[in-house]
């Protein structure tokens, strides 16, 4: 299991590794800030989708060990979201609170992305076993329902960011719909009965 | 051959940029009379050209980072997909409210209007910008030659429609062919350029070869590429981006930091090659030459 975890960890770093390599090899193109934004943004969404797929996959296949990867994958979604947001805060808005506030207030797509990012923070912070214990399973789980608005806002953010060719954001919306449907189909029998939460 | 008389020295090398930037001190030192004389002597081309710390954008970026949806929506798609694009033979149909309509061969047009170099800022509606040494001739020269009638109030520019050569046109991203337009006074403004080259060379296919429009005080999408038709009209032409999203892309599309795109700010822009954004200038910095075209107009309503 440790080996498997190490392998997933290394694979999850691929987009980041590519960005680092491209930065040094001068392969980020004419607009590196935009390139970083798009690679990290798309990666954050993909890791969010993978994280959301773990539970239905586990229930569909009975492969319960999958659950052990969920936290790490969720934290990778956060990792890429942090890179994405930092790229925006630093290079697009020169770390100016006034610029950022104005952009967030005036442009819905920025507001959606910003909100999704802010909502991810408590999820990343409470991802440890200690926080599960401290909050109690039920409250912890309720808090982590925030992952749904985060995913929906993330896809909306992507959709509105694109000028005309929305094929990729629409594809991402389709993937999210499939993932959410799978989660509904394979929803917890416990929850239907209102029984105890099992971490 | 496209460029019959290439300039021996690019125009931007004739006046040293530092000297040009010191022009105010120069004017003060030599007094008003000499100053006025000096301004008269500096070619209009140069006065309109590079201002402030505008460094030329490297050729690779100008020819490698393109919005030309006919060849794909990715920024690097046009350079890849336009490689085999045929720009000869090429004729431009000039028609409508003019005395001398006809099909004009591109090489004949260039022979008649030898290209000059113009260094312009180029501001995309997506909030990035470049500084490009274009080669071209003022559209007004062509307009004079075709003798517009009094009914010619607008000019419409149409891009080639050829899905076999332009893979982007096989998808309904926009209404094809791409159409842009100008008011007549904008079209005959001396800054408005018919472009046939850049960086002293023939225009790369991905930049709109063999003939494109450049209007430096407007967002880049106003500059139709690979033009096959120039039509003089009494009514305002229906333009592609305006039809696609009228609330986002106006007919005028003058660079205006005070009027945001509904989805993003136009107050600042990223100059290609720079990491941080810089302030966007009204009319892309050409206000002293073009603002009078819009006197009395509400630029917020006519964006």
Describe this structure in words.
The complex is a heterodimer of chains A (199) and B (303). Chain A is built from eleven helices and no strands. Chain A has 199 residues and is an all-alpha fold. Chain A has one domain (2-188). Chain A is globular. Chain B is 23% helix and 21% strand. In chain B, a hairpin with a 2-residue loop joins strand 7 (193-198) and strand 8. The A-B interface holds A 29-34, 91-94, 99, 102-103, 106-110, 160-161, 163-165 and B 60-61, 64-65, 69, 73, 75-76, 126, 128, 173-174, 244-245, 260, 263-265, 268, 270, 272-273, 275-277.
Largest two-chain interface: A-B, 23 and 25 residues
CATH homologous superfamily of chain B, by name?
A: Oxidoreductase, molybdopterin-binding domain
What's the β-strand tally of chain B? 12
Using only C-alpha atoms, the radius of gyration of chain A works out to 18 Å
Count of alpha and pi helical runs of chain B? 12
Q: Quick check: average pLDDT of chain A?
A: 93
Q: How large is the count of helical segments of chain A? A: 11
Structural class of chain B: alpha+beta
Compact description:
Chain A has 199 residues and is an all-alpha fold. Chain A contains 11 helices and no strands. Chain B is built from 12 helices and 12 strands.
Essential attributes:
heterodimer, A: 199 residues, mainly alpha, 11 helices, 79% helix, B: alpha+beta, Sulfite Oxidase, Chain A, domain 2, 12 helices, globular
Describe the secondary-structure layout.
The complex is a heterodimer of chains A (199) and B (303).
Chain A lengths: L1 H11 L1 H11 L7 H30 L8 H23 L4 H10 L1 H18 L3 H7 L1 H8 L2 H15 L5 H19 L3 H5 L6
Helix pairs in contact in A: 2-3, 3-4, 3-9, 3-10, 4-6, 5-6, 6-9, 7-8, 9-10
Chain B lengths: L10 H4 L2 H5 L1 H7 L1 H11 L2 H5 L10 H4 L14 H5 L9 E6 L5 E4 H7 L3 E8 L4 E11 H8 L7 E6 L19 E5 H4 L5 E6 L2 E2 L9 E3 L12 E7 L6 H5 L23 E4 L6 E2 L7 H4 L13
Parallel strand pairs in B: 1-10, 4-11
Antiparallel strand pairs in B: 1-2, 3-4, 4-7, 5-6, 5-10, 7-8, 7-9, 11-12
């Amino acid at each position: 299991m440790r080996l498997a975890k190490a392998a997933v960890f290394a694979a999850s770093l691929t987009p980041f590794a590519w960005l680092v390599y491209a930065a040094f090899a001068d392969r980020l193109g004419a607009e590196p800030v935009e390139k970083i934004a798009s690679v990290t943004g798309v990666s954050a969404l993909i890791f969010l989708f993978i994280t959301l797929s773990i539970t239905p996959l586990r229930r569909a296949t009975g492969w319960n060990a999958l659950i052990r990867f969920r936290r790490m994958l969720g934290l990778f979604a956060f990792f890429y979201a942090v890179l994405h947001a930092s790229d925006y805060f630093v290079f697009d808005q020169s770390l100016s609170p006034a610029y950022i506030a104005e952009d967030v207030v005036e442009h819905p797509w920025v507001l959606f992305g910003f909100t999704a990012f802010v909502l991810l923070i408590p999820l990343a912070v409470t991802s440890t076993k200690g926080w599960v214990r401290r909050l109690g399973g039920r409250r912890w789980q309720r808090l982590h329902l925030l992952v749904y608005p985060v995913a929906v806002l993330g896809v909306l953010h992507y959709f509105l960011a694109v000028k005309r060719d929305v094929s990729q954001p629409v594809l991402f919306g389709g993937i999210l719909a499939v993932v959410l449907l799978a989660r509904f189909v394979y929803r917890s029998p416990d929850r239907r009965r209102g029984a105890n939460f099992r971490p | 051959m496209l460029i019959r008389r290439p300039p021996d020295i690019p125009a931007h090398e004739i006046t040293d940029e530092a000297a040009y930037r010191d022009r105010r001190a120069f004017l003060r030192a030599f007094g008003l009379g000499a100053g006025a004389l000096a301004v008269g002597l500096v070619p209009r081309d140069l006065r309109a050209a590079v201002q402030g710390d505008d460094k030329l954008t490297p050729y690779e970026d100008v020819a490698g980072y393109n919005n030309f949806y006919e060849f794909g929506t990715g920024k690097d798609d046009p350079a890849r997909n336009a490689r085999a694009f045929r720009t000869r033979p090429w004729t431009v149909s000039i028609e409508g409210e003019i005395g001398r309509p006809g099909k004009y061969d591109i090489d004949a047009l260039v022979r008649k209007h030898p290209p000059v170099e113009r260094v312009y800022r180029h501001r995309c509606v997506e909030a990035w910008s470049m500084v490009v040494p274009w080669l071209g001739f003022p559209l007004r020269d062509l307009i004079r030659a075709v003798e517009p009638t009094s009914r010619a109030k607008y000019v419409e520019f149409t891009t080639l429609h050829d899905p076999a050569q332009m893979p982007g046109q096989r998808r309904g991203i926009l209404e094809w062919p791409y159409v842009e337009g100008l008011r007549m006074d904008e079209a005959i403004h001396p800054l408005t350029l018919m472009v046939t080259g850049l960086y002293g060379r023939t225009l790369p296919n991905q930049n709109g070869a063999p003939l494109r429009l450049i209007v430096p005080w407007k967002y880049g999408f106003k500059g139709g590429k690979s033009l096959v038709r120039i039509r003089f009209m009494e009514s305002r032409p229906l333009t592609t981006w305006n039809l696609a999203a009228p609330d986002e892309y106006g007919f005028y599309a003058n660079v205006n930091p005070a009027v945001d795109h509904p989805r993003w700010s136009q107050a600042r822009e990223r100059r290609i090659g720079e990491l941080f954004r810089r302030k966007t200038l009204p009319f892309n910095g050409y206000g002293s030459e073009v603002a009078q075209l819009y006197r009395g107009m509400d630029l917020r309503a006519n964006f």
